[in-house]
Amino acid sequence: MGGVGFRLSTEIKTGDWRALRPVIDQNKCTKCLICWLYCPEPAVIWDGVKVDIDYDYCKGCGICAHECPVKAIYMIPEFGVE
Length: 82
What we know:
The protein is an alpha+beta fold. The protein is built from two helices and four strands. It has a domain at 24-77: Alpha-Beta Plaits (2-Layer Sandwich). The radius of gyration is 14 Å and the shape is globular.
């Protein structure tokens, strides 16, 4: 029987869908990881030293920027989007 195939979200790179992308000001970031907790995709990365964004999976929703208590994350237009 056929059916819908199951794939993990990490197998589907959805970063091409966004119009805005988050940028982290590492000097302002307190590494509280609230952005990591709220990100609905596996796009916020914590390597034990700094927080970064995996743009292959980031959809540009802006939740990370909205939830950052010190406003270390801001959104900018994606390249080629006007």
